[in-house]
């Protein structure tokens, strides 16, 4: 019997943002002094590409035409031209400002850029990571998980959020396997292929 993998969207564990509001606003930030590279959560599925970066959206400043992006180890400010910037997966037709301001802080984005003469990056395209489509029959509601935890059915509950979030609190009986480290922790999964396996994170994203 094949292993059943069921995704679970839990509103009670929603994460407000992957990063707090401590970051410097785009208008005030200085050029980053570190080499930006794709965030780890993106590198699990995507290989680095020349002229592209995958990061977390932070802030946008329309007046200076800059966007601050966050990476695992820091932040970087990139510039854009409001007349030529393309927004993919969630653009508001004919309104660039609404398109950019609609991107939630901490949401994963991919940008296409070129280096300017001063070592800064100018982006021509920003693509917003679309929601993951999970079939309804493979989703569990909070009430179903509560019944599962308090019942006698054999199962494995996997919290795929980063370790700090797991340490802040999780569902009883859950084990932590952060998504970027999934392949390195396969030994933590049940040996019984017929056992119910439930994954959850901060919601379906």
Q: Can you tell me about this structure?
A:
The protein has 205 residues and is of the alpha/beta class. It has two domains: 4-14 and 133-200, 3-Layer(aba) Sandwich (Oxidized Rhodanese, domain 1), CATH 3.40.250; 40-128, Nucleic acid-binding proteins (OB fold (Dihydrolipoamide Acetyltransferase, E2P)), CATH 2.40.50. It has four helices and eleven strands; from the N terminus they run βαββββαβββαβαββ. The strands form two sheets. A five-stranded parallel beta sheet has the order 8-1-11-9-10.
Unreliable stretches: 1-32
Would you give the CATH topology of the largest domain? OB fold (Dihydrolipoamide Acetyltransferase, E2P)
Major beta-sheet overview: 5 strands, parallel
The strands making up the biggest β-sheet line up spatially as: 8-1-11-9-10
The domain count comes to 2
What is the structural class?
alpha/beta
Global Rg: 20 Å
CATH superfamily of the largest domain: Nucleic acid-binding proteins
Beginning-to-end CA distance, first to last residue: 29 Å
**How many alpha or pi helices?**
4
Oligomer: single chain
* Shape by Cα distribution: elongated
DSSP E strands, number: 11
Helical proportion?
A: 10-25%
Output the helix-strand order: EHEEEEHEEEHEHEE
Highest-level CATH class of the largest domain: Mainly Beta
In short:
This protein is of the alpha/beta class. The chain has 4 helices and 11 strands; from the N terminus they run βαββββαβββαβαββ. The strands form 2 sheets. The protein has a 5-stranded parallel beta sheet with strand order 8-1-11-9-10. It has a 5-stranded mixed barrel with strand order 2-3-4-7-6.
């Amino acid at each position: 019997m094949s292993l059943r993998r069921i995704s679970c969207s839990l509103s009670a564990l929603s994460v407000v943002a992957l990063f707090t509001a401590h970051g410097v606003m785009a208008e005030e930030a200085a050029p980053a002094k570190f080499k930006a590279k794709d965030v780890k959560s993106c590198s699990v599925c995507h290989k680095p590409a020349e002229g592209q970066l995958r990061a977390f959206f932070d802030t946008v400043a329309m007046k200076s035409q800059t966007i601050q992006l966050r990476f695992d180890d820091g932040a970087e400010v990139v510039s854009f031209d409001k007349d030529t910037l393309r927004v993919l997966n969630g653009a508001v037709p004919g309104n660039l400002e609404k398109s950019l301001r609609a991107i939630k802080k901490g949401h994963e984005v991919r940008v296409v850029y070129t280096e300017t003469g001063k070592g800064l990056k100018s982006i021509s395209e920003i693509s917003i990571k679309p929601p993951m489509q999970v079939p309804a029959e493979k989703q569990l509601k909070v009430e179903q998980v509560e019944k599962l935890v308090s019942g006698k059915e054999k199962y494995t509950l996997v919290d795929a959020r980063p370790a700090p979030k797991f340490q802040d609190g999780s569902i009883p009986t859950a084990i932590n396997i952060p998504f970027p480290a999934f392949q390195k922790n396969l030994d933590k999964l049940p040996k019984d292929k017929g056992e119910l396996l439930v994954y959850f994170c901060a919601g379906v994203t």
